[in-house]
Design a protein that fits this description.
heterodimer; A: alpha/beta; Aldehyde Dehydrogenase, Chain A, domain 1; five-stranded parallel β-sheet; three-stranded mixed β-sheet; 11 helices; 11 strands; 43% helix; globular; B: alpha/beta; TIM Barrel; eight-stranded parallel barrel; 12 helices
Chain lengths: 298, 311
């Protein structure tokens, strides 16, 4: 009988999250994560996929395909799914706290607060899903025998560049407002935050989020930004990493394509404060108002 | 354009039935080879050339119950100039139901784009032969340059190979000068051996093209079925000197798939088969994806699918 090796190290490969699956990068590129990042372990402790522009292209195509179904789902269902993400995150809070500390993305005290606040933020946005049209929509008075309604509709595919710190809270705070009205998302995170972001993908994968609605790619962001910026299938940008990478190309191309961008200045401590980091206007940024007329009496 | 059938209805197959029945295909090898050829990396200039070729090989198709005169007209304009100002060639043909052939002919007369029509009780072919013949004659009289017919799969699967041959030969006669494409509906044939047998019978019966699928069943063209058919037409040419074209159809929606087929043709039969005289792709949404990839190659950025007309 083979000798048992209970201490054999299992080196995890953090894989991308595209279309509800966990593929490796099409480029085949992976980067080793050295033990210096992970507490108390030496040498290579894990591998992480380095996404390429083609991964990005695939993710955008898949997000486009998934978006109509997500938009068509009732607000109630979207809210339940966001709530489910919060549940799954809370259930794995210890793991996320460890990851934040191991990869030096937060101190132990901050990590606990960050995971807790992230789950709370998801709850806050979950509540908006079935209330958005009542609050942001309106019944308009018009000069004629017509009912006239305006209501918010999703824009489509949104590209998100979340901040590196706070990693989890920043990711959740940028993702949730995009999802609420029925957009699909392509998130491009840095390699440094990859282990945490791609572990969050495991939360998403068990939260009934329809495949393709959320796609997470870890990449050298400088490398893929030109592709992301010029991709016309993307309807809007959420840029929340000012100061970390050069966003000039994103801004220029967005202007060129008349693409809406929510472009946050360096947000720093504001991520921790409710009113500044969870806002109805963030949801509304990723909506279009549709107005419909209907004759009275029919 | 087309040659007359060497074998009329009722004439015996040149290859004995026993040989057709005992035909064997190495399924594992075929699947492996077809998949392997899909992993080729096409570099920039080759890809540009391949996209142009693929566009020129498309039979731009609409075969829906909801097809209207307006829809066919707009499809014809798309076939003539798929992406205005983009330096892409016209499609090979527009493929419609017989009732709409006249509309397509009015739009495409005098242009390099041919008008193809399905007939013979497309897609199931479950109508009597005289109805199939009338269907075909109607399409030809309406001005169709090319006729896509279906084989009677029920008869084929029942082993009535001679009947299948005779029916195709009769439809070849009815099609007259029009180019005859014979749809095998490979998704209903059950095995690669059957695909090879049906392909051979269609070639013998006077097909100008053999075609994989109607696009109306769940299993459409796959690279392996295409490879199987390419090998048969290659063998048929070697034995008889007559060259038969191949058309793949159904489920080919993106440029990557289309280029995979071009690689299959090139590696199996050679570069001189890479023209719309010998290879066609029946598709509708594929055209837009080819245009998207063409613009990507030209401008360097990805375009949105709403940037073009749907048809």
């Amino acid at each position: 009988m083979a000798k048992e090796t209970p201490d054999a190290p299992i080196h995890k490969t953090y894989k991308l999250f595209i279309g509800g699956a966990f593929p490796r990068s099409e480029s085949g590129r992976t980067l080793p994560i050295e033990g210096r990042a992970a507490k108390g372990r030496k040498g290579c402790v894990a591998q992480i996929c380095r996404g390429s522009r083609k991964d990005l292209r695939n993710a955008v195509d898949i997000a486009r395909g998934a978006q109509p179904g997500w938009h068509k789902a009732t607000g109630l269902l979207r809210g339940q799914i966001l709530y489910r993400i919060a549940e799954m995150l809370a259930a794995r809070s210890g793991e996320f706290e460890d990851l934040l500390c191991d990869y030096r993305l937060a101190t132990p005290a901050q990590a606990k607060q960050e995971v807790s606040l992230s789950a709370q933020r998801l709850l806050w946005y979950a509540g908006w899903c079935d209330k958005l049209s009542q609050v942001s929509g309106s019944v308009n008075t018009v000069n004629g025998p017509y009912f006239d309604f305006s209501f918010p509709e999703a824009q489509g595919v949104v590209a998100i560049l979340p901040p590196e710190k706070p990693c989890l809270l920043g990711l959740v705070s940028t993702l949730a407002p995009v999802l609420v009205p029925g957009n699909s998302a392509v998130v491009v995170s840095s390699i440094e935050t990859g282990p945490l972001v791609l572990t969050f993908a495991e939360v998403l994968a068990t939260s009934d989020v329809p495949a393709g609605v959320i796609n997470l790619i870890t990449a050298d962001r400088e490398e893929v930004i030109p592709t992301l910026a010029s991709h016309r299938e993307i309807n809007a940008n959420f840029l929340a990493c000012a100061g970390e990478v050069d966003l000039t190309e994103m801004r220029t191309q967005a202007a060129d394509h008349v693409k809406r961008s929510l472009d946050l200045p360096s947000h720093g401590q504001a991520w921790w404060k409710g009113p500044e980091a969870q806002d109805l206007t963030w949801i509304e940024t990723f909506c279009e108002l549709k107005t419909a007329w209907h004759p009275m009496g029919y | 354009m087309s040659t007359s059938s060497p074998h009329g209805p009722g004439s015996p197959l040149s290859v004995p039935l026993t040989e057709i029945q005992s035909l064997h295909v190495d399924e594992v090898g075929l699947l492996e080879r077809a998949a392997d050829l899909g992993r080729r990396s096409l570099k920039r200039e080759t890809k540009r050339e391949a996209i142009q070729r693929a566009v020129s090989m498309i039979d731009l198709t609409t075969l829906e119950g909801s097809d209207s005169v307006g829809r066919v007209r707009s499809l014809c304009r798309k076939a003539l100039d798929p992406a205005p100002g983009m330096d892409l060639p016209p499609a090979a043909a527009v493929c419609v139901y017989p009732r709409l052939v006249a509309t397509a002919v009015a739009e495409l007369e005098g242009t390099p784009v041919a008008v193809a029509s399905v007939s013979s009780g497309f897609p199931a072919g479950q109508v009597p032969l005289d109805v199939k013949l009338a269907d075909t004659r109607f399409a030809v009289e309406s001005g169709a340059d090319e006729i896509d017919i279906v084989i009677p799969r029920g008869a084929f699967l029942g082993g009535e190979y001679q009947l299948v041959h005779d029916e195709v030969a009769a439809l070849k006669e009815a099609a007259g000068p029009a180019h005859l494409k014979v749809i095998l509906e490979t998704g209903e044939l059950g095995s690669f051996e059957n695909i090879a047998r049906a392909a051979w019978i269609a070639c013998e019966a006077g097909a100008d093209f053999i075609k994989t699928s109607t696009g109306k069943v769940s299993l459409n063209s796959t690279p392996a079925t295409c490879l199987c058919m390419l090998r048969i037409v290659g063998e048929f040419e070697r034995r008889t000197g007559k060259r038969i074209g191949v058309k793949v159809a159904g489920g080919i929606r993106n440029a990557k798939q289309a280029l995979h087929y071009l690689v299959l043709v090139h590696e199996t039969l050679g570069a001189d088969w890479l023209s719309n005289r010998w290879f066609r792709i029946g598709a509708s949404s594929l055209m837009n994806d080819l245009i998207r990839q063409w613009i990507k190659q030209t401008r360097g950025s990805y375009v949105g699918r709403n940037d073009f007309s749907k048809d």
